[in-house]
Specification:
This protein is an alpha+beta fold. It has one domain: CBS-domain. Helix content is 47%, strand content 19%. It is built from 6 helices and 6 strands. The strands form 2 sheets. A 4-stranded mixed β-sheet has the order 1-2-3-4. A two-stranded antiparallel sheet has the order 5-6. The longest helix is centred in the last third of the chain and has 24 residues. The chain is elongated, with a radius of gyration of 20 Å.
Length: 154
């Protein structure tokens, strides 16, 4: 199975933000859409990725800073200040096992899929788990059908 097959099973809706958008607005979008990531676009091209990891990290950083003294309000933080710049991307032709290895090695739960500079979507670790489960279910069904049709011994 390839990444492009995983993308076919997903919604084509892509949630995006701009680098100069307020982080608080991006978080609302993520929460409302029940998404763990937003693609950050500027001038029609991918410039970053915002995931819940970056949100938690900046909130924790601000909390530590507040203990030392006054800090700017969280409401003033921009997406571009905390996003992953130039995120790791994968191609639609990448095999599922290679994708899993990349996700594990890079500790990334979300990876943009890009082909010839065009963003096609984002695959998540949940998408990968679902694809593996579906593939195993199909294989199990085929094996059970094969076993049922096993010829009797003479």
């Amino acid at each position: 199975m390839q990444v492009k097959e995983i993308l076919r099973t997903k919604s084509t809706t892509l949630f995006t933000s701009k680098p100069d958008a307020l982080l608080s607005e991006a978080v609302v979008t993520m929460a409302d859409a029940d998404m763990g990531s937003l693609v950050v676009m500027e001038g029609g091209r991918l410039v970053g990725l915002l995931t819940f990891r970056e949100v938690v990290q900046i909130v924790a950083k601000r909390q530590r800073e507040q203990r030392k003294g006054p800090t700017p309000p969280v409401a003033e933080i921009r997406v571009g200040d905390v996003m992953q710049h130039e995120p790791l991307v994968v191609t639609p032709g990448m095999e599922l096992n290679d994708l899993r290895q990349v996700m594990i090695d890079s500790h990334q739960r979300y990876l943009p899929v890009v082909e010839d500079g065009t963003l096609l979507g984002v695959v998540s670790f949940l998408d990968v788990a679902r694809a593996v489960l579906d593939e195993q279910g199909f294989e199990n069904k085929m094996l059970k059908a094969y076993i049922r049709d096993w010829p009797a011994e003479a």
